Amino acid sequence: MKRTTLSLFAVTAALAAVTGVAVLTGPSDVSAPGGKSGQTVTGAMAPVQRSALVCPAPTSSDVGDTTYTAFTPTGGKGTGKSADLLPAAGGKSGKNDGKPVLSLKEPGKPVTATTDRSDAPALYGAADGPLAPGWTAQQTTAISAGSGRGLHGLTCTPPDTSFWFPGASTAKGRQDYVHLTNPDVTPAVVDLELYGKDGRIKAPSGEGVTVPPHTTVPVLLSTLTDAPADDLTLHVAARSGRLGAAVQASDEKAGGDWLPPSADPAADAVLPGIPADATSVRLVAHVPGSDDADVGLRLVGPNGTISPAGHESLHLKGGMTTAVDLGDLTRGEAGSLMLTGGGSSTPVVAALRVTRGKDDKQETAFIPATSAIDGRGTVADNRPKAATLSLTAPGKAATVRVTSSAGSDGGSPVTKTYTVKAGTTLAFEPPQPDGAKGSYAVTVEKTGGGPVYASRMLALPKDGVPMFTIQPLPDDRSTVAVPEAKTDLSLLNRG
């Protein structure tokens, strides 16, 4: 009996860990009266019934304009409910009774909100019922002048307990803030760990940072250490509670963007969606453990996979961060970078810093290592003639179904099927919704073949500056394994 009960509890805990917030909808009566049971637990897949998101404060610039977009694909089950993003407090604990900044009422149609406030708050919230599976939110900020000038885009993330950010910096001319937002009713305590080319950097003030309930805390990374350094890896590790974390990088000359967290440490990594016109690509990789790693570098282009000349492999020392300048890696053709462990099990995290333009017309974005789309992934805030979707099949060929939703101000969804050849990257403008008005969401569903990795570039050039931002499309984890009770008569014979 006790083993059966513990198994169910373990499954429930696993669901919460995988989805951020997942509600168990399987049978609630596991134990028979008297403390004995004749049931065992098996799994079945079902849509999540609740999910959570956290969005950082978008900008402190007086010349920034932000658009928020929220969307949920169709297909969820349950009674109709809303998905609300609420403002977080900026410095004091306690419940925030502010009105929702953005409320989604129905699946299949995006909703938007805009602000030009320099003190716009961080957001947190949850979606229930049919709005929970695949609920996504995007914030896009155009900063017209000053440090970090450019397009800053970020897909809001589920709260978690660990985040890796290779590509952070404390160098002169760069301002990197990590935004920590606690969506829960209890405090979160986190450690901010910095790793450079020689290993971990002493940063006592980054230990035991408390984030009160429903509050956001921005931390300037350069205040954590006396030694300025480029090409760092930041690890945000929660001692208690959970939170959302994102790094906003602003450069005096090269613009700026949000640095999303890398996928969980793994021996192999895929960084999808390097633009065809990238003028500079810089790889930053880190080994979280003490073992060294030797990784192969492969460029997955439109016509196949090659080893970049002069950068066929990279030796990574345990606990240290390594950076390498790959130059104009794509040479006029869109592609993706793949890191291969060559049979080694040593896990790594990685990200690319991508530059478009030259001289005083440069703009920068980041591409982190991204998890594959096993079922479905979605990105919001796509705009006509401005979005480029990149799909990478590093192994076997894959087929995907791409759906562009109705626009935020009207229109009808459009769906098309694409085949990504083995070992290639397919980059294209998503299909335009029929009669679409406003921005639209793009949903990618894998229908067959090998693993697929995806990202979206949004390009909104202004005054000769190629402003752009890149968002990965990881799997949305919209389904979870739900325990099903079945009778096991052998348990009835046990005392």
Molecular structure report:
There is one protein chain. The N terminus is likely disordered. The chain is mainly beta. 4% of the residues lie in helices and 47% in strands. It contains one helix and 36 strands. The strands form nine sheets. Strands 10, 12, 13, 14 and 16 form a five-stranded antiparallel sheet that branches. Strands 19, 21, 22, 23 and 25 form a five-stranded antiparallel sheet that branches. The protein has a four-stranded antiparallel sheet with strand order 2-7-4-5, with no helix packed on it.
What is this entry, summarized?
With 495 residues, the protein is mainly beta. The protein has one helix and 36 strands.
Properties at a glance:
single chain, 495 residues, mainly beta, five-stranded antiparallel beta sheet, 36 strands, 47% strand, disordered N terminus
Low-confidence stretches: 1-41, 91-95
Taken from the alpha-carbon principal axes, the silhouette is: globular
Number of helices: 1
SSE-based structural type: mainly beta
Radius of gyration over C-alpha positions, nearest whole angstrom: 23 Å
| Mean of all residue-level pLDDT scores | 88
Percent of residues in β-strands: over 45%
Topology, please?
Elements: H1 2-19, E1 39-47, E2 50-55, E3 64-71, E4 83-87, E5 102-104, E6 111-115, E7 123-128, E8 136-143, E9 150-155, E10 162-168, E11 174-182, E12 188-196, E13 199-201, E14 209-211, E15 215-220, E16 232-240, E17 244-251, E18 255-259, E19 269-274, E20 280-286, E21 293-301, E22 304-306, E23 313-316, E24 321-327, E25 335-340, E26 349-356, E27 363-368, E28 376-382, E29 387-393, E30 398-404, E31 414-420, E32 424-428, E33 440-449, E34 453-459, E35 468-472, E36 479-487
Antiparallel strand pairs: 1-36, 2-7, 3-6, 3-8, 4-5, 4-7, 8-9, 10-16, 11-15, 11-17, 12-13, 12-14, 12-16, 17-18, 19-25, 20-24, 20-26, 21-22, 21-23, 21-25, 26-27, 28-33, 29-32, 29-34, 30-31, 30-33, 34-35
